[in-house]
Specification:
Chain lengths: 385, 174, 385, 174
């Protein structure tokens, strides 16, 4: 594993050494429970509250509204269920067809309970048309949830416009900013709830947050000792929270240079990969997150493509059916209408702060041969169809 | 996830490609489900009068397991009599590979099915009486293909393979 | 903080150095997402599944039934809500009056939704009478939840008997074994669900588990990517899970010697503290967890007692009203009927594997003076009442 | 949680204990709620005819904040005229201590109330006309005490302080 090329940073990012250094004191030396009265407890409490302030600052948010969770999946669930249970009179939710499962599955569950769920379709690049959201809002609408940037395609959604139109219609607006935070500007002033996850930001796994407007009533998913102002009980994951805050701060600090570098790499990736015959870009060249690019290759299947790349030292991912535990293809690729023979052969390349020019070169040097190998054993030939 | 034997067949697949000369081809799978396997066999009459699978090859669109099982089936069948080859089961294929992850077991059935279909086509072409087990399996495979085609009929739009696959359920991202 | 005496291990324990060493590779070098296909992902998956097996072994449980959560609060909630939502026909739950809030508050919530909740009273030592559970079970009973060992008093509950009688009546039995696991034998064969938390076992904060009988249907609290067999979605906290497993293994390995040592310390604590006039032991000398002892001191208040001890370098905790954010006294001390003038002056001392004879000596040397100081400024005198 | 000033008064409380000789004592709080404060004052007539709080002390059963605010109130009142002492408010006490955590603000009102009650008792004993603000505050304190006693009546069982407190809501453990 010495010279691996890790291009799956949308799945998870390696922990930043500086983040790890920030966490280090909280494993053994400062091990207190943040609810304890004594010195050890006060130290932990201070760490948690300092972290809350740091994250609030990075988001331009009121610290009172930051609720720490075990990750963005929980944050997304808390947004959906927390609001649904606090406002049972409103039984209509609007989301996009390409939300993460952490949004779609809570919505599916509510639909079974009799909620109306409007899943807004996207265009062939993956973009939601704000007008279709305006059209879908009615006086039963509890919440509009549209992700800021899509984790498979990298496409950015027009969340500023959507947030503003929700505000004008007095409907709450949530955005899953797991991939977008620290990479693009978020229109926090027109957003009511934001989900974040530390491990997508070179922070630790197992911690995230829901930022909610202070005072917004959310019924907890997890009841107990009354932590996090009663919205999320459970002993605080102090080292995780400290690492999360440190990661947020670093993302904001480094954003400008990072985005510039990754945008350059992304262009190289797109130009280079599209030179391979029978290839298509899923998503769009522009209006995208800087770190994610998604492709499809005719006549080959994505799982075997990822495995061949892995054999050559490159980590990437795919939305192919064969790669999923239940053998169902990516709902995102379906939603943008990728042609059948292309849908199974998708490849997501995603970069992090540690990504180098050498990584890009390695990928572009290796990928054509791998694609060719797999095509040479495929019953479909490029000229086909 | 995959064991070393599977990976070895995936890395260095045996007998892949299309035979220059073949007696029959068995085609199974469906592009909509994401796996398609074509198995080519060249059958030759041995001196003792037996039908031998003198050569075999395959083309596969599918996952690591689909590729490895294609390779393994070709290894198992090569040089066998047709009658022997008929008895190759998918559990045998998986076992010879040292096992497959649970969600990938169906890939081994795909490979064994492709061989079955190739042999079935050969029997038809040769106008030979078809053994009951071969025919039963052929019928099962045909039924399954029909089911899949029905299930995806909406997306297929009368043979237009370019049709988009909007609306299938689920996804594998993380 | 160099020579602190940490006697609040029931609140949280310092991370064991060996546990930390086990976690270390999973922060940076092995940073993959356990759902990813590639080498990094497979490494993470292996770590998670190895951990699941280790914990299952430590519990004598089927690994298929282990669901990783963000801690025991979530595990307790998942047991209560997960079952309630999967069996909506049964609307009666039995628990003890001294369960942790992570059990009581989900029950309170269900009660608001129309469930019947029977809160079994305890005797003056904190013990549940199994007969009162047998009497409370009816054909509507979904679940009996009785903790294995109480976190405030240390008292052990007769969970083997309770589990067996539940089994005989075909009612599911859950136990919160957060404090008891690794310290006493658990009757796992007569238990259907068990909650655990890593940070109470010298493992990391932010991770725990619900062990459920394999195949038991639990409706998830958190829906999404389908992790943990669909029962608990969210990217796995790999380093946390690895640390949790390591901690469980060490607890089991060291249990015999640890329990012997801590039981000896506990006896010293009880003998020593009761020598202070106007003192009472809450709970019981025997039939208790080895690491927890709870006392009350007449005429003084617990928060100021804890703060005075803290000033002298000793970390402990109290169930006093003044120490709680909402100024309500411990429901556990209330449930065992601690006399009023004693209820406010409680002190919980709890030990961990790092506790030494010197810690016990320090406490016993320091406490009498601190109690006397506070009594000297109290309006109540010992002779009173 | 507590600032250094609070901790300093907690560590080294000023004027604690019971005065050997005192003019009046103000008693506030309730053992059931967990905080009780007794404030003793010794009033002396100065040469200019003013009533001076010549000495003051307190006994407190309560938290760190309760002890620190008792101490601070005694410091603030000592040497003041009774008329000046009446104007000491709880927010002043908290402010002099550099602030208190939100859930602990009530402790500062307890200390200021105890002083108020001591002065009120002094006025009664001296049969002096009671200033309106003093009386109003006294009535508020009495009302509050009555409320508490009613709330906890079930547990008090006619003055038996040994009565057990089963059934109060909530808890602070972790
Ligand atoms: C857009 C998006 N939302 C939510 C999640 C879930 O976050 P977590 O892994 O913290 O549960 C992910 C990644 O897994 C994501 O990419
Ligand atoms: C008995 C008991 N149950 C549950 C919990 C909650 O566990 P966690 O801190 O992992 O949320 C605790 C401690 O906080 C406990 O002592
Ligand atoms: S071909 Fe799709 S899972 Fe094997
Ligand atoms: S005396 Fe109870 S909170 Fe201060």
């Amino acid at each position: 594993m010495n010279t691996r090329t890790y291009l799956d940073n949308a799945a998870t990012t390696p922990l930043d050494p500086e983040v790890f250094a920030a966490m280090l004191p909280y494993f053994q030396r400062k091990h207190g429970n943040a609810s304890s009265l004594h010195e050890e407890g006060r130290q932990a409490r201070k760490a948690v509250e300092d972290a809350r302030r740091l994250i609030a600052e990075a988001l331009s948010w009121d610290p009172e509204g930051i609720v720490f969770t075990s990750g963005a999946t929980e944050a997304d669930n808390l947004a959906i269920f927390g609001l649904a249970r606090s406002r049972p009179d409103r039984r209509h939710i609007i989301c996009s067809a390409i939300e993460h499962h952490a949004i779609l599955h809570p919505c599916d569950w509510l639909e079974q309970q009799g909620y109306r769920i409007t899943r807004i379709p996207v265009d062939t690049t993956g973009r939601v048309n704000p007008q279709s959201i305006a059209d879908a809002i009615d006086d039963q609408t509890l919440l509009v949830s549209i992700m800021a940037g899509n984790n498979e395609l990298g496409i950015l959604e027009p969340i500023r416009e959507i947030g503003e139109l929700c505000r004008a219609r007095s409907v709450l607006f949530h955005t899953d900013a797991v991939q977008a935070f620290g990479r693009v500007d978020l229109p926090t002033e027109s957003t009511d709830l934001i989900s974040l996850s530390a491990h997508k930001l070179h922070g630790p796994k197992g911690v995230g947050a829901l930022a909610a407007r202070p005072g917004m009533r959310l019924v907890p998913l997890v009841h107990g000792g009354g932590h996090e102002r009663g919205v999320r009980s459970g002993t605080e994951n102090v080292h995780g929270i400290v690492g999360f805050a440190s990661a947020c701060r670093l993302m904001v600090e480094r954003r400008e240079t990072l985005v510039e570098r990754l945008s350059g790499f992304r262009k190289q990736l797109i130009d280079g990969v599209l030179r391979i015959p029978g290839t298509r870009l899923n998503g769009d060249r522009s209006g995208s997150l800087p770190h994610i690019a998604n492709f499809s290759f005719a006549a080959i299947e994505g799982e075997s493509l990822v495995m061949k790349l892995d054999e050559r030292g490159i980590a990437a991912s795919t939305g192919s059916a064969c790669s999923s535990p239940n053998l169902e293809p990516s709902h995102v690729l379906q939603a943008i209408g990728v042609p059948i023979e292309m849908a199974h052969g998708s490849l997501r390349l995603s970069m992090g702060q540690q990504t180098t020019q050498a990584d890009i070169d390695t990928l572009l040097r290796t990928l054509p041969g791998v694609v060719e190998d797999l095509r040479s054993i495929s019953p479909f030939k490029l000229g086909d169809s | 996830m995959y064991n070393e034997q599977v990976m070895e067949h995936f890395r260095e697949p045996r007998n892949h490609g299309k035979l220059a000369r073949y007696s029959a081809v068995g085609k199974v799978g469906n592009i909509l489900c994401g796996d398609v396997m074509w198995m080519y066999i060249l059958v030759e009459r041995a001196e003792n009068g037996e039908d031998i699978i003198a050569d075999i090859s395959w083309e596969t669109f599918g996952c690591t397991a689909a590729i490895a099982t294609s390779s393994m089936v070709s290894v198992l069948a090569k040089g066998k009599t047709v009658d022997e080859a008929i008895t190759i089961t998918n559990s045998q294929v998986a076992a010879e590979l040292g096992g497959l992850p649970a969600p990938k077991m169906h890939c081994s059935s795909l490979a064994a099915d492709a061989l079955n279909e190739a042999i079935h086509e050969y029997f038809i072409a040769e106008k030979r009486p078809i053994p009951a087990t071969l025919e039963q399996r052929h019928e099962r495979i045909a039924r399954h293909r029909k089911e899949l085609e029905d299930r995806y009929a909406g997306f297929l739009d009368q043979g237009d393979r370019k049709q988009q696959i909007k609306g299938l359920p689920g996804s594998p991202c993380c």
